[in-house]
Design a protein that fits this description.
By secondary structure, the protein is mainly alpha-helical. It is built from four helices and no strands. The protein has one domain. Helix 1 crosses helix 3 and helix 2 crosses helix 3.
């Protein structure tokens, strides 16, 4: 386990990712990770990385999270 990250921050990201499985794109991403052979923890960490990218983009642009906008971006990428 990496020691460069705060345990509290790591736990917060884990539970954030777990709670986000209610969103369609999160569940689809998690399911794809699991189908490719990743463990539950690995799939959640990968999903957490995606959420951190969303958070950083929100901070850079000053915009709030909009699930509908996220769905449009996913549709364009497909």
């Amino acid at each position: 386990m990496r020691r460069g990250c705060s345990e509290r921050l790591r736990n917060a990201l884990y539970y954030w990712s777990l709670a986000s499985l209610k969103e369609d794109w999160s569940r689809q991403y998690y399911d794809r990770q699991r189908a490719s052979g990743n463990t539950h923890g690995s799939a959640l960490r990968s999903l957490g990385d995606r959420w951190l990218a969303v958070l950083i983009a929100m901070m850079k642009t000053g915009r709030l999270y909009d699930a509908a906008r996220r769905g449009q971006q996913q549709a364009k990428a497909s």
